[in-house]
Design a protein that fits this description.
Layout lengths: L3 E4 L2 E8 L4 E3 L3 H6 L13 E2 L19 E11 L2 E7 L13 E4 L2 E9 L2 E6 L1 H6 L10 E6 L1 H11 L1
Antiparallel strand pairs: 1-2, 1-4, 2-3, 5-6, 5-10, 6-9, 7-8, 7-10, 8-9
Length: 159
């Protein structure tokens, strides 16, 4: 109780739990910015507990502060891997760079390609099999968190 858990990349606070479930509160801001409001019973979600001091860092730093929702615009199979393309709202374009990081539904990924208004990520079979990214189809909505270092750079440039 009181601990954090990321659900599809959204940082939430556990308010109740049983041996097989937990509950959280969700405020209107979170519902407006994320996909949580569209969840239905039985939906597969990505869960991640918070990083503890001394834990291995296997991706980029994620805060669980989703920037926006976006839509899958293309799915391309490449052997056993897959390339997923997402629309990028113009407001967030400055946070996306090729070979930079982005989190989709809480999964840290490398941006493979950036073209006007979209970004593409290449996903390995392990990630496809162990997250909900493997079931994404064109038109599906996802949570996106842009790399915090890109936010910091954009903020410094404004000053």
């Amino acid at each position: 109780i009181g601990g954090s858990i990321a659900v599809d990349g959204v940082c939430l606070t556990v308010i109740a739990q049983t041996a097989s479930s937990f509950s959280t509160d969700v405020v209107p801001e979170t519902l407006a910015r994320t996909t949580l409001g569209s969840f239905t019973t039985g939906r597969k979600v990505n869960l991640e507990r918070p990083l503890h001091m001394g834990d291995e860092i296997g991706g980029h730093f994620l805060q669980g502060h989703v920037d926006t929702r976006t839509i899958v615009t293309n799915v391309k199979k490449r052997g056993t891997s897959r390339e997923l393309t997402f629309s990028v709202p113009l407001k967030y374009k400055k946070f996306v760079i090729e070979k930079g990081s982005v989190a989709v539904n809480g999964v840290s990924l490398t941006v493979a390609q950036v073209v006007p208004r979209t970004l593409t990520v290449a996903i390995i079979p392990h990630t496809l099999n162990h997250t909900n990214l493997g079931s994404l189809e064109i038109g599906d909505e996802v949570n996106v968190e842009f790399d915090i270092s890109r936010h910091l750079l954009a903020t410094r440039k404004k000053k």
